[in-house]
Amino acid sequence: MENMKVLLGFICLIVPLLSLETDKCTEYPNEVISFSSVNEIDIRSCPLTPNEMHGGTIIWYKNDSKTPISADKDSRIHQQNEHLWFVPAKMEDSGYYYCIMRNSTYCLKTKITMSVLENDPGLCYNTQASFIQRLHVAGDGSLVCPYLDFFKDENNELPKVQWYKNCKPLPLDDGNFFGFKNKLMVMNVAEEHRGNYTCRTSYTYQGKQYPVTRVITFITIDDSKRDRPVIMSPRNETMEADPGSTIQLICNVTGQFTDLVYWKWNGSEIEWDDPILAEDYQL
């Protein structure tokens, strides 16, 4: 009985020490914002680089709680290895979470604001959770169903994905679309291919199957319709200068990074070694 009293006293001392860990960390100024779908399984990683996490221990906290999130795998919200699991995510899980990395020399703290969302009325997704992806018109490319690495099977294979466009099943045998692992191959991209694409799969945890959904806003890029550069100034202006003086003329142009801007003198381009006229540019 005496040994038991000593052990209990030791445990009581450890708990306050753990609760003070978050107060001595360097907090990253950048806040990470993430979205999850209600009633779906979700796994979050600590947004630190491998170098920052090397040799350290990761602990998760919710809001301003001083108590770490449970490591019990039967708990709906729990920490498993370095990741934060929601099995499944609920509306009340919205809020902010702290990922704390501590090693023998320093401690880092980063904040993740999480919003658990319901689908928009009449839709199979919430537009706030959309990932924007772009492909060039007339070329071939692929849309990627993001963040599925956590749901690989025991053979390290990604789960099978079903694709939908504007919430309707997408036919994958019409010559334009082909499914490959977590990618949707788009052949001969056209303007009519733009829209909202949903990729769906599922993951079995503790014997129960949970849905996983991602929504992608697909934007097409038509290089043939690229905007022409516009000269903002000067516009048919006349400037006077005294003989022998130096004058600076500024041409202000808006356009693409690859647009070429240059001056002409009496209809001819200015030579780079002209002793009188010299031009320069800034982006």
What's the SSE blueprint?
Elements: H1 2-19, E1 26-27, E2 32-37, E3 42-44, H2 50-53, E4 57-62, E5 77-80, E6 83-86, E7 95-102, E8 107-117, E9 130-136, E10 141-144, E11 162-165, E12 168-169, E13 177-180, E14 183-186, E15 195-205, E16 208-221, E17 230-233, E18 252-254, E19 264-265, E20 268-269
Parallel strand pairs: 1-8, 2-8, 9-16
Antiparallel strand pairs: 3-6, 4-7, 5-6, 7-8, 10-14, 11-12, 11-15, 13-14, 15-16, 17-18, 19-20
Provide tags for this entry.
single chain, 283 residues, mainly beta, Immunoglobulin-like, 3 domains, 5-stranded mixed sheet, extended, disordered N terminus
What is shown here, in short?
By secondary structure, the protein is mainly β.
Characterise this structure.
This is Interleukin 1 receptor, type I, isoform CRA_c. GO terms for molecular function: interleukin-1, type I, activating receptor activity. Keywords: Disulfide bond, Glycoprotein, Immunoglobulin domain, Inflammatory response, Membrane, Receptor, Repeat, Signal, Transmembrane, Transmembrane helix. The chain is extended and about 85 Å long. The chain has 283 residues and is mostly beta strands. A hairpin with a 2-residue loop joins strand 15 (195-205) and strand 16. It has 3 domains: 16-117, Immunoglobulins (Immunoglobulin-like, Sandwich), CATH 2.60.40.10; 127-224, Immunoglobulins (Immunoglobulin-like, Sandwich), CATH 2.60.40.10; 227-283, no CATH class. The chain is built from 2 helices and 20 strands.
